[in-house]
Amino acid sequence: MNQTLTHKIIEAHLEQGEMKPGAEVAIRIDQTLTQDATGTLVMLEFEALGLPRVKTEVSAQYVDHNLIQEDFKNPDDHMFLLSAARKYGLWFSPAGNGVSHPVHQERFGAPGKTLVGSDSHTPAAGALGMFAVGAGGLEAALAMAGEPLHLKMPRTFGVELTGKLPDFVSAKDVILEMLRRHGVRGADGHVIEYHGEGLENLTVMDRHVIANMGTELGATTTMFPSDGEARRFLEKQGRGEDWTELLPDEGCRYDKEDHIELSELVPLIAKPSSPGNVVAVSEVEGEELYQAYIGSSANPGLRDFAIVAMMLEDEKLAPGVSLDINPSSRQTLANLIREGYLHTLIRAGARIHQAGCNGCIGMGQAPATDANSLRTVPRNFPGRSGTREDRVFLCSPETAAASAIRGRITDPRNLDMEYPRFKEPDEPEIITDALIPPGEGEDVELRKGPNIVSLPELAAPDETFSPEVILKVGDDISTDGILPAGARVLPYRSNLPEISKFAFKDIDGDFYERASNCERGFIIVAGENYGQGSSREHAALAPRYLGLRAVIAKSFSRIHRQNLVNFGVIPLTFANPDDYERLEQGDELDIEDWLKALRESESLVVCVKGGKGDIEVEHQLSTRQIDAIAAGSLIELVRKQKSD
């Protein structure tokens, strides 16, 4: 049988299950990636497993999100992560060394390998032909412990690329075109595989841009073949020996297909406040601009910064425009300096920030109220920038630069200039000295500051429980909406009691008080795609800590659904989506013999008190997932299994 890239890698790593779409499979994991916004919980979870050292080929811990050091909390966590890396055998990338995804691709990425990352944009590594999956921190911790990753066998979504991108159109416009066509749920349950002769005109870093934002389509991951371009990339990184060819078999079949003629694309932009709200730049051209933001894991390549500098060579910023440059890595910054691009950016009036995620996750560079911000980041969910009523657009570096020059949103094709031709340096400067290799571990003590609180034990729910619906939300609620990111919240990522106070704060300011006073446990009702966005498990763990026992939704985002299971919350879907309208905040429910019902059937009955009758709900949980919920959490289940 002619195989896709997905089937080739999963088959080579398969430990349990059958490769049938929708069936649960378990695959061996070669590498893990953790970052500081999620990594502290990962290390606490790994500590709870009681193992002396990671069992993967490569595990790396990055400090790239929480870089603002306004008090002790963030630097204390950085010290904790360094001590954990030394103790347990991980590589450590310190603050200022760069965003996890491009750094990992440069230093550790290898075709044909599997990667689990506690960051939803881990699929960016698919640019090198890796099967890279974003997951909750607990799944990353278990992968570090040598446990396989369990997931539903994905379907494949083949996208044929032909032609060549026209001037002032780049890789960001390719993924925005995918979002324009398919929306934020268009690849749910699928691995997107790009193929076709158009790949000849896309570098590995171009592919990184596209693979990174496959997450916004709901994809399990995104993959590109490991071809000659992948070989050239690894050779320039001094790692040519890590290249292996990995191509789909000729004539392989995909479950879903699409085709993009690159030469027909135009500059695109995602309007506030969803990555799926995509239109041609020409449709919003002329709107006044406050900020243009370059960088993030979604546009991290040297080219993405250099093209902006080249467009600004004989230009200057429009008065009142803030051009924020967020270098993706120390290595990228060094090459921007060496090639003269940084000088051009500074002379033109750009603001230079440290290498890291920064404003992408709401850590600085927040825009002004009701002011348009054009960003090359992957997400523009409401308030994610740090400004509550923000107006964030997603676009290419070319569109951001053109708009910064004109002072209003501008189709870059309308500038009076020739399109600059960027050429990668033949021998880029390679920066590896900041990376700290794994330590020996035996005598290292974990360094826990006062803001690091051990995880509480999570008890299993009673056989019969009578929860209250304390919140009802609509479609596409993101993890940023469930638990905000940014400088005011993420410093408490290691302190569950404190970070729980921010749960749903931007959606319902009274949620924490209601939840704290609900002794019986509670339920949340939601629409489609509940929990889209970030993989941060705090969005499941904080409501669970406050008493969340189940979520009834029309549908769930993959990672968040699993995070709920990992912490003992039952994810249920309406058998009849119209029943969503029957449930309201304040309704009291009865769920009898829930565990028996979960084990015996894929559906169960929820009694709505007050004469509203019964509602049928479904779960689609595996036996392993039901066992985790029954134990109170997946970590309690694993702990019990290891002690038996």
Number of helices: 20
What is the radius of gyration?
24 Å
Largest sheet: 7 strands, mixed
Strand content: 15-25%
Enumerate the strands of the largest sheet in spatial order, edge to edge or round the barrel: 20-21-22-23-26-25-24
Based on Cα principal axes, name the global outline.
globular
- From the N-terminal CA to the C-terminal CA, the straight-line distance is 42 Å
Work out the oligomeric state of the chains in this entry.
Answer: single chain
Would you count the extended β strands for me? 26
The secondary-structure class comes to alpha/beta
Mean pLDDT reading? 94
Low-confidence stretches: none
Helix content: 25-40%
Brief synopsis:
About 30% of the residues lie in helices and about 20% in strands.
Verbal overview:
The chain is α/β, with parallel strands linked by helices and 644 residues long. The protein has 20 helices and 26 strands. Helices cover 28% and strands 18% of the residues. The strands form six sheets. It has a seven-stranded mixed β-sheet with strand order 20-21-22-23-26-25-24.
Architecture blueprint of SSEs:
Elements: H1 5-13, E1 14-16, E2 24-27, E3 31-35, H2 36-49, E4 58-62, H3 73-88, E5 91-93, H4 100-107, E6 114-117, E7 131-134, H5 137-144, E8 149-152, E9 155-162, H6 171-182, E10 190-195, H7 204-212, E11 221-223, H8 228-236, E12 256-261, E13 268-270, E14 278-280, E15 291-295, H9 302-311, E16 322-326, H10 330-338, H11 341-348, E17 351-352, E18 372-375, E19 391-394, H12 397-406, E20 468-472, H13 479-482, H14 496-499, H15 511-516, E21 522-526, H16 538-546, E22 548-553, H17 558-566, E23 570-574, E24 589-590, H18 594-600, E25 603-608, E26 613-618, H19 623-631, H20 634-643
Parallel strand pairs: 3-4, 3-6, 4-5, 6-7, 9-10, 9-12, 10-11, 15-16, 15-18, 16-17, 18-19, 20-21, 21-22, 22-23
Antiparallel strand pairs: 1-2, 2-8, 13-14, 23-26, 24-25, 25-26
